[in-house]
Amino acid sequence: MRQSKWILIVLALLLGLVLSACSTGNDNTEEDAGDDTQESKEEKVLNISSPSDIPTMDPILTEDNVSTQWIDTVYEGLYRQAPGGEIVSGIANKDETEVSEDGTTYTFHLREDAQWENGDPVTANDFVYGWQRATDPDNGSFYGNYLMSGKIENSEAIFAGDMEPEELGVSAPDDYTFVVELEGPLPYFESYVINSNFLPLNQDFVEEQGDDFSLSPENILSNGPFKMTSWSAEEGWKVEKNESYWDADNVNLNAINVKVVKDADTRLSNYEVGELDRVTLSGAQVKDNQTSPDYQSLT
């Protein structure tokens, strides 16, 4: 069974020496264990912390790890990175991707069961719009420039203001075929497209939000494993399982609650009183907690 990149996102937040509780305290067990017809109502919620707020949820503006991690929980691109680093299928079926003999044309075939949170299908036009938006110099995407300029056909001229974003070397021959023209062969191109700047965006939704796009959960439209349902500046945020996600049956968490806690000792205290399910240890905390039954090394 394919494991989605959101698992890696959680691990990235927890990587290191941690204390991990055995239970989140959010389980609802069956009232009658003898009733074989009654399904378990177990609610799987993970409560963790972050040392900082999310600077942005706009995929083309992210320049930090926190933003990237959580953008990748609510969006899905052509491919994802599985545990262990393998590049696997996302919206595109990796096994069906076609590459021209000279290595400059990639043809991606998209799955037809992927949809946005509002029920709209995820189409090749969403990738065309998302990539064009990343190369528009008016939008100020630092990594869009770094990752695309001189690589995607016409991208360098677009960033220089000599061509329009609509002239970028991407096209949608039909709703589920996305074609990319490169300036030259790029052997590592498939590893590039897991970056946030290569995500699809629903053009109608983005343009309807205007300057408010991505500033709050109401201004974000998910096509990934989770959807953001709350976000309070400097306090925290919550993502919940996106039932519209094409692979929702394999998303085993119902929600992730993230609390912004900047001080390491405060994070540990929050864990000890049961407000957090896991906490990363630092400095003297490692030595002080090595004998705890909750202590784990996630390296």
UniProtKB/TrEMBL annotation:
Signal sequence segment: 1-23
The record, for CDD domains, names: PBP2_OppA
| Keywords linked to the UniProt accession | Peptide transport, Protein transport, Signal, Transport
A single GO cellular-component term from the record reads:
cell envelope
Q: Which Pfam families match?
A: SBP_bac_5 (PF00496)
Where the record annotates domain Solute-binding protein family, the positions are: 89-293
Extent of Acidic residues compositional bias: 28-37
Q: Where in the cell is it found?
A: Cell envelope
Single Gene Ontology BP term?
Answer: peptide transport
Domain of life of the source:
Bacteria
SUPFAM superfamilies registered for this protein in UniProt? Periplasmic binding protein-like II
Q: Provide the residue span(s) of the region labelled Disordered.
A: 27-58
| Record GO terms (molecular function) | peptide transmembrane transporter activity
Per the record, the similarity remark reads: Belongs to the bacterial solute-binding protein 5 family.
What is the official name of this protein in its record?
Oligopeptide ABC transporter
